[in-house]
């Protein structure tokens, strides 16, 4: 560096250093931070002290736990030994030894008896009813007498097996012989089961019935009270309804309509990830937003596989969509949920029926998909609800989902949205204003279920388009024209993309074709006054999407005719909630030549799916 | 013992003095990158919190300038990512800080107005060297670029900036 450069450096430094003005806001930040810092320091000290205290206590817990563990192991071992020697429990063994007895195998002499148990039939599933008539003991041999009724012969009930267990000992294990099978199909037969090692003091017999190695039912027979308890009843008692509802809420997302495509491989996998995300949030109570946003791929796969089969491509979903993307952090791959406040949620409203059979819980339940708005406005009762049946079994060897889904049906709509009087009035007004205006859907205060109106719409393919400010679901037979490069950021409020095509639908039984363009504009700022006007006046055509929670205001009022083109302009807040009441809005404009249900459905469906991508 | 060392040992008064000393330096960098006062505010706030929580872990007091500036740059980067209209899912392993300077001009800061006349890749080295008085080594470390690159950029910036400032002052360049 020569002297000339040094001079220049001094000159530059001098001139730049003069610019040390800082806005008042920043000044306040520094001044307040100094005060805030004092408060944080106090909190830090309190936290450190509490951590120290918990560290001191921990070794004491450890010791206590160690003691408890040793005692439990010793006690369990002694108990197992005692029961293997024919004692009810360890205390009887201790008592026996204390009284000077020796620990030996027992060979009891049984007293004869004939105990009538029941003549009532018990339904054990697969169309089979069973009576446990009586227990007899004669000449030191115990027998259990059964009557089996088969309503309908079936291959499923081949090789019926009866197993009687008492005190963890198998007293009888008998499979129907081939020649008996004919009798089985003859609808009713009697069965004698010889019980080996039956004890004089046996009070409980467990009768387990299987067919083709699948458990049909287990009966708990109390010889004293003569009560028979079907095992499943007890299994139902094991279920916590609150917990079950949480799982069912998550599992309902398996039926969530992603991008209008119910059958695609990607959508199915995306739904599984949605469920896994919901389980992570609900079951594992993750409070931290960052943790909620990022899920490690391996862990998510384990979680997915703990509740359903997971036919994923090496555990990786390769498509990007508005729900999640793939990211790599510190060499590990993560699914990232893109919109923490906008992902779909489901709620199990009620468990309508639950039965237990063969290790499976069969549950009929009702659920819905509320948006953030529905939560906020306590509107959950009024939105679409669905019913479905699911078969679950309890997972025993996973720390993830408690339930594994063996079978799940397809959700059925059981209660449509409540079309309020306001909606009907709005529809009428619209019709009065312009006869050819597309009616009911665009004036609904909720987005509509397109499948109920026009089969053409549901048979469409919907694609995803992501661009500045928005993520769009659009008909794939439409084309997209980007006005300028959306990544570079156009000026506020400028047109940046147009989707165009022909909406082919049916109107009054006749095919209609309408040219249609959908224009997307750069986000722009609306003042508090503009937003107040929209939100307070709620212009006709206001739509709140159940899926995204976004409310779209039709700022052009009812469809307007511009040079034979109908034009509807919608805006929606992105939700910055600035202090001055202003907010950025995104705008979408629909233009079409012939109004029809098809056009209306496309508009509503797209508005129902549209999400802002950037905020 | 200077304020940095004292702050590292938990002296809150020293910490207060220290951050006030860096007030305009933090602001000018944040506003240069983000070009928006609200965003700059957020970035600085996050930076101060991070410094407060981590200053005790700093090994070398002399590294404070570069270390804190690196935190600030990363917070600016986070805000840019958050504001970005399309999320880039193929995240870069290494951040290109020059590229991250926001194009849109949404502030009235005079210093930013001057530096904006320079090429993008010259702006950060300029503010770090001339305004923050960081060394070439520190700048290289913060921006994650070789020292040689810093020097060549400074050389280009010097000539251009000298002319810009001279033009602004009319003939007052030499006095």
Mean pLDDT over the full residue set of chain A: 71
Task: Report the structural category of chain B.
Answer: mainly alpha
- Mean of all residue-level pLDDT scores of chain B: 81
Estimate the helix proportion of chain A, in percent.
Answer: 25-40%
Largest interface (CB < 8 Å): A-B, 41 and 40 residues
Q: Determine Rg of chain A (CA atoms, Å).
A: 35 Å
CATH topology of the largest domain in chain B: Rna Polymerase Sigma Factor, Chain: A
User: How much is the radius of gyration of chain B in Å?
Assistant: 17 Å
Question: Portion of residues in helices of chain B?
Answer: 55-70%
The biggest beta sheet of chain A reads: 8 strands, antiparallel
Summarize the helices and strands and which ones pair or pack.
The complex is a heterodimer of chains A (615) and B (175).
Chain A: H1 3-17, H2 24-84, H3 90-98, E1 113-116, E2 122-125, E3 128-138, E4 141-150, E5 160-166, E6 169-175, H4 178-185, E7 188-195, E8 204-211, E9 214-222, E10 228-230, H5 231-237, H6 241-251, H7 265-283, H8 289-293, E11 294-296, H9 297-307, E12 324-329, E13 332-337, E14 347-357, E15 360-368, H10 372-376, E16 385-394, E17 403-408, E18 412-415, H11 421-433, H12 440-443, H13 455-458, E19 462-467, E20 470-475, E21 479-482, E22 495-507, E23 510-526, H14 528-537, E24 543-544, E25 551-554, E26 560-562, E27 565-573, E28 583-592, H15 597-609, E29 611-612
Antiparallel strand pairs in A: 1-3, 2-3, 3-4, 4-7, 5-6, 5-8, 8-9, 9-10, 11-13, 12-13, 14-15, 15-16, 16-17, 16-18, 19-20, 20-29, 21-22, 22-23, 23-28, 24-25, 25-27, 26-27, 27-28
Chain B: H1 3-8, H2 12-21, H3 23-34, H4 37-54, H5 64-83, H6 110-115, H7 120-131, H8 136-143, H9 147-168
């Amino acid at each position: 560096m020569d002297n000339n450069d040094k001079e220049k450096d001094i000159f530059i430094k001098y001139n730049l250093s003069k610019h040390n003005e800082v806005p008042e806001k920043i000044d306040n930040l520094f001044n307040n931070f100094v005060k805030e810092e004092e408060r944080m320091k106090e909190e830090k000290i309190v936290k450190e002290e509490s951590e120290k205290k918990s560290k001191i206590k921990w070794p004491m817990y450890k010791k206590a736990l160690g003691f408890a563990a040793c005692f439990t192991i010793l006690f369990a071992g002694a108990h197992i030994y005692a029961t293997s020697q024919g004692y009810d429990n360890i205390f009887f063994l201790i008592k026996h030894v204390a009284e000077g007895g020796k620990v030996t195998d027992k060979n009891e002499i049984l007293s004869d008896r004939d105990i009538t148990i029941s003549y009532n039939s018990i339904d054990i599933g697969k169309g089979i009813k069973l009576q446990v008539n009586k227990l007899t003991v004669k000449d030191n041999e115990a027998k259990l007498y059964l009557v089996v009724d088969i309503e309908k012969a079936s291959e499923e009930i081949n090789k019926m097996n009866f197993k009687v267990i008492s005190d963890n000992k198998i007293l009888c294990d008998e499979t129907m012989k081939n020649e008996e099978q004919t009798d089985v199909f003859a609808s009713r037969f009697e069965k004698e089961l010889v019980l080996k090692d039956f004890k004089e003091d046996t009070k409980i017999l467990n009768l387990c019935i299987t067919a083709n190695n699948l458990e049909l039912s287990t009966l708990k027979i109390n010889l004293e009270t003569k009560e028979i308890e079907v095992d499943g009843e007890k299994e139902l008692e094991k279920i916590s309804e609150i917990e079950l509802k949480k799982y069912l809420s998550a599992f309902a997302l398996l039926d969530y309509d992603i991008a209008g495509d119910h059958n695609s491989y990607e959508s199915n996998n995306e739904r599984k990830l949605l469920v896994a995300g919901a389980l992570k949030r609900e079951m594992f109570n993750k409070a931290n937003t960052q943790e909620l946003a990022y899920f490690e791929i391996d862990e998510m796969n384990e979680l997915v596989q703990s509740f359903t089969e997971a036919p994923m491509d090496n555990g990786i979903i390769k498509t990007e969509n508005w729900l999640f993307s793939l990211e790599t952090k510190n060499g590990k791959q993560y699914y990232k949920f893109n919109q923490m406040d906008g992902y779909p949620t489901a709620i199990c409203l009620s468990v309508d029926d639950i039965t237990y059979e063969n290790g499976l819980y069969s549950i009929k339940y009702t659920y819905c998909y509320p948006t953030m708005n529905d939560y906020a406005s306590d509107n959950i009762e009024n939105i679409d609800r669905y019913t479905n049946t699911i078969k679950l079994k309890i997972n025993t060897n996973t720390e993830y989902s408690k339930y594994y889904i063996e079978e799940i049906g397809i959700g059925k709509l059981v209660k449509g949205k409540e079309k309020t009087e306001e909606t009907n009035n709005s529809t009428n007004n619209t019709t009065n204003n312009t006869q050819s205006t597309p009616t009911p859907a665009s004036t609904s205060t909720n987005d509509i279920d397109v499948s109920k109106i026009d089969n053409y719409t549901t048979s469409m393919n919907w694609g995803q388009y992501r661009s500045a400010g928005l993520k769009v679901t659009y008909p794939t037979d439409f084309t997209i024209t980007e006005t300028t490069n959306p990544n570079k950021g156009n000026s506020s409020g400028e047109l940046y993309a147009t989707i165009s095509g022909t909406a082919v639908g049916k109107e009054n039984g006749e095919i209609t074709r309408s040219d249609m363009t959908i224009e997307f504009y750069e986000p722009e700022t609306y003042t508090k006054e503009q937003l107040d006007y929209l939100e307070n006046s709620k212009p006709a055509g206001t739509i709140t999407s159940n899926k995204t929670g976004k409310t779209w205001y039709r700022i052009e009022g009812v469809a307007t005719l511009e040079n034979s083109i109908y034009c509807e302009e919608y805006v929606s807040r992105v939700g910055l909630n600035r202090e001055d009441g202003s907010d950025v809005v995104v705008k979408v404009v629909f233009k079409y030549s012939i109004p029809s249900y098809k056009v209306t459905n496309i508009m509503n469906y797209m508005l129902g799916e549209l999400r802002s991508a950037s905020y | 013992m200077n304020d940095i060392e004292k702050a590292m040992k938990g002296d809150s008064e020293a910490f207060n003095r220290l951050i006030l000393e860096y007030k305009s330096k933090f602001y000018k960098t944040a506003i240069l990158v983000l070009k928006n006062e609200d965003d700059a505010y957020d970035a600085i706030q996050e930076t101060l919190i991070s410094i407060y929580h981590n200053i005790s872990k700093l090994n070398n007091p002399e590294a404070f300038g570069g270390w804190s500036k690196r935190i600030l740059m990363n917070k600016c980067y986070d805000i840019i990512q958050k504001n970005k209209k399309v999320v880039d899912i193929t995240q870069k392993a290494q951040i290109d800080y020059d590229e991250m300077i926001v194009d849109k001009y949404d502030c009235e800061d005079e210093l930013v107005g001057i530096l904006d006349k320079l090429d993008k890749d010259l702006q950060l080295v300029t503010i770090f060297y001339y305004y923050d008085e960081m060394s070439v080594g520190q700048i290289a470390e913060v921006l994650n670029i070789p020292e040689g690159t810093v020097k060549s950029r400074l050389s280009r910036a010097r000539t251009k900036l000298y002319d810009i400032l001279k033009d602004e002052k009319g003939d007052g360049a030499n006095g």
